[in-house]
Specification:
- With 198 residues, this protein is of the alpha+beta class.
- It has one domain: Aminopeptidase (3-Layer(aba) Sandwich).
- Helices cover 21% and strands 29% of the residues.
- The protein contains four helices and seven strands.
- A seven-stranded mixed beta sheet has the order 2-3-4-5-6-1-7, with helices on both faces.
- A hairpin with a 5-residue loop joins strand 4 and strand 5.
- The longest helix is centred in the middle third of the chain and has 14 residues.
- It binds coenzyme A (COA).
- Coenzyme A binds next to strand 5, helix 3 and helix 4.
Length: 198
């Protein structure tokens, strides 16, 4: 168990507080705007297409979870019938959102990745996508829907999940190599998180 107080983070690493949340029965839908968006499941997605979307949505928030996997490990996840990758496209066909539901655990669903590309944030698309995520997850007969978010994510994300019906139940600290310094993400990403080099 970690002692109270401040803990040094090695240079070249990021640190974040992770909050785990769960929903134990299907939350009611919240009002969403009528938006010219489409949501489409992509079965067995091409890894390069997937990584491109993952970076588009996640790089501004230093998402590294899928970027650190070896190719075989990533392909195994993407080809698993229990991992449902959905893409949100706008009226021009531009791909602006990623919704990834992971049903690999019996009777549960993890909202593994949920986010919008920077230009699509804050215009109602998040709520539109969450209403659909809740329906899709609970439509598979689960008894638990869970997610985690961290302090490197969009600052509105935690509150957004709480309003969506997820209840926080645990908190962790995560220290990880800064994905910009390991070459996984462009150096100019996430300027709100200053680089601290070795
Ligand atoms: C988290 C995230 C998906 C939230 O999406 P968002 O686009 O910021 O949120 P929205 O604008 O859809 O919703 C915010 C609220 O404003 C309302 N709203 C915003 N624009 C609206 C509009 N034009 N018309 C009607 N309502 C609108 C929504 O209905 C919603 O209300 P509610 O939460 O009270 O139900 C988004 O910030 C994001 O992708 N962030 C980057 C990635 C990330 O951090 N992901 C989460 C971490 S895992």
């Amino acid at each position: 168990m970690l002692e109270d107080g401040l803990h040094a983070v090695p240079a070249g690493h990021t640190a974040s507080v992770v909050t785990h949340l769960e929903m134990l029965e299907e939350a009611p839908q919240r009002p969403d705007a009528e938006l010219a968006l489409t949501l489409r499941r992509v079965e067995r997605p091409d890894p390069d297409w997937y990584l491109n979307l993952f970076r588009k949505v996640g790089a501004p928030w230093l998402w590294f979870g899928r970027l650190v996997l070896g190719r075989e490990e990533l392909v195994a996840i993407l080809q698993d019938d229990k991992v449902h990758v959905h893409v949100v496209a706008d009226a021009t066909g531009a791909e602006v959102g990623l919704l990834e539901l992971d049903f690999r655990q019996e009777a549960a669903c993890e909202l593994a990745y949920f986010g919008l590309a920077p230009g699509a944030v804050g215009g109602g698309a998040g709520r539109w996508m969450m209403n659909r995520a809740i329906r899709l997850a609970w439509g598979q007969g689960i008894s638990r829907f869970h997610v985690h978010t961290c302090t490197l994510d969009h600052p509105a994300a935690l509150d957004f999940y709480c309003r969506s019906g997820f209840v926080p139940y645990a908190r962790e600290i995560e220290i990880a190599p800064d994905p910009r310094l390991s070459g996984l993400i462009d150096m100019d990403a996430a300027p709100h998180v200053p680089l601290i080099r070795d």
